[in-house]
């Protein structure tokens, strides 16, 4: 149920480039794959500091250009004859984001053959197993990633999200709070914690958590979504109505309320 509401944290990296010329100078074959407006969208897209294809691949991944990033990583392996757990892991991330979970799993496993203690590869396997519905395997891999690197906020959040999906809300809350103790600005964990508290019937706490990253009316709407996904119709309706009363111009709350009323009417 909760799976419909929330989403997993992937590996988020920053990418930027201020100059088409710079990118063209370093990797001329790749420019045609990236829209010109994207290349010039931010001055932070400066590749002068990039010292390897791996670094440029990370930045490309941060902007969602996983196919282009994958080419860079494979060129690194082919051209330099080098390989590592990091490169294989990044290849796996690209493959997963491009929809090929089978290839991604093999890449993560290959990364672990290079380094059996490479925590990100365990996390990557956990995400793939979760997406495939193998929750017990996903839990095993997420726990291993956390064991190897407990200071990674995203690992804590992913394990917490698995517990949330399994409706083990107390364990989920523990992981989300641990994540936020590492990175207080981890937005997905804040959203996940709010959802968790709502499902624990700690609604005032949930609203307070949601309002750390959104307005009160948006938080009320979020509560409606949480309870709708949890099949708690009365609560969902209550919070959608509260959201519209708090901010009548909030389009998403208006739409949710109208849609949800139609659903209720059809089932009566």
Could you characterize what this model shows?
By secondary structure, the chain is mostly helical. The chain has 15 helices and no strands. The longest helix has 17 residues, at 251-267. The radius of gyration is 21 Å and the shape is elongated. The protein starts with 19 loop residues before the first helix and ends with a helix.
Secondary structure blueprint with pairings:
Elements: H1 20-26, H2 36-39, H3 53-62, H4 66-80, H5 85-97, H6 101-114, H7 119-132, H8 135-148, H9 153-165, H10 169-182, H11 187-199, H12 203-210, H13 216-229, H14 233-246, H15 251-267
Helix pairs in contact: 3-4, 4-5, 5-6, 5-7, 6-7, 7-8, 8-9, 9-10, 9-11, 10-11, 11-12, 11-13, 12-13, 13-14, 13-15, 14-15
Name some characteristics of this structure.
69% helix, disordered N terminus, 268 residues, mainly alpha
How big is the Rg?
Answer: 21 Å
Distance between the termini: 22 Å
The portion of residues assigned to helices is 55-70%
Number of strands: 0
Shape: elongated
Helix/strand/pairing category: mainly alpha
User: Number of DSSP helices?
Assistant: 15
Report the order of strands and helices: HHHHHHHHHHHHHHH
User: What proportion of the residues form beta strands (DSSP E)?
Assistant: under 5%
Summarize the structure.
By secondary structure, this protein is mainly α. It has helices at 20-26, 36-39, 53-62, 66-80, 85-97, 101-114, 119-132, 135-148, 153-165, 169-182, 187-199, 203-210, 216-229, 233-246, 251-267.
